[in-house]
Amino acid sequence: LTELAPLHPLFVEEPVLPEQGHLLPGLVAASPIPLATGERLYGRAEFLAVLAAGVAVAQPDLSHAGGITEVHRIASLAETYGAQLAPHCPLGPIALAASLQIAFVTPNFLIQEQSRGIHYNKDADLLSYLVDTEPFRFVDGHALRHDAPGLGITVDEDAVRAADRTGHAWRNPVWRHPDGSFAEW
Length: 185
What we know:
Layout: E1 12-13, H1 24-30, E2 35-37, H2 44-52, E3 57-58, H3 67-80, E4 84-85, H4 93-105, E5 138-139, E6 142-143, H5 157-166, E7 175-176, E8 182-183
Parallel strand pairs: 1-2, 2-3, 3-4
Antiparallel strand pairs: 5-6, 7-8
């Protein structure tokens, strides 16, 4: 990680697999770059150990970590440890709308991951299933807070039904090391 430090990255994401969390204290101590983790953790009990290890950025995924209420609790726990929040959200418009609700009320919010234009959304993008895309208009890199009720979006149910009829063939990509062994994302 010291070789990356002159490039001033915001953080290094997921430096170890979740089952290797015991390595985080040593990595945190040795890294000149803030470390982030949490997209594969499923509640605040799992975040306690990584935050205690000194991770600088918690990255819960609202779709996996218990929704708005649990992620709000994770954000509060992270704040207690001096860590920031960067919700993981490579999924659809409902997950992003929920993540933004957390962002708008979290004092230690850092950045929001989102999947608009990402490589695996070739046939349908984040905006493909919304009646009105205005809630996801970003200005100068910032989400605008709207006063619409609920999550602030209206799902285009006809578009969702059409996509359901079409089906999908998407699968997780499989990466391999030069020796042919399985590689993590």
